[in-house]
Amino acid sequence: MLLIGCINNNPEKVNLNQLTRVDVQVVKTDESYGETVMITDKETVDNLKKLFKKVKWEPNIEPKMAKKEDVKATLFFEYDNNMPERLFEYWIWFNQENNTVTIISNNEKEGYGTLDKNNAETLKNILLK
What we know:
Layout (H helix, E strand, L loop, with lengths): L18 E8 L10 E3 L2 H12 L2 E3 L12 E7 L8 E10 L4 E6 L6 E4 L1 H11 L2
Antiparallel strand pairs: 1-2, 1-4, 3-7, 4-5, 5-6, 6-7
């Protein structure tokens, strides 16, 4: 009998197929975080996977943002059933001028990312509902 398995030995590399949950905190007008909203339903998590796959990442850029983010999202990835989930944080700005999204990730392999106008509206609707 031959048994073959696959484990992601590099948990610093995000595998969106292993995304299981997203926690969202909206930034209030006083720049504090609102209550955490957990997104766990499969359909919404699948939609978020598709959107994050479309983000154009530039890992070697360290941007300075003029204002605090609009949303902080924590993405939970399950790489192995016997190990704790791996978390990555994303600070997200919804750009009113051009209807795009700017994202900064705490994963150094991603860094700074942008999402185009077509996908930005969908992301905004999911995270701010």
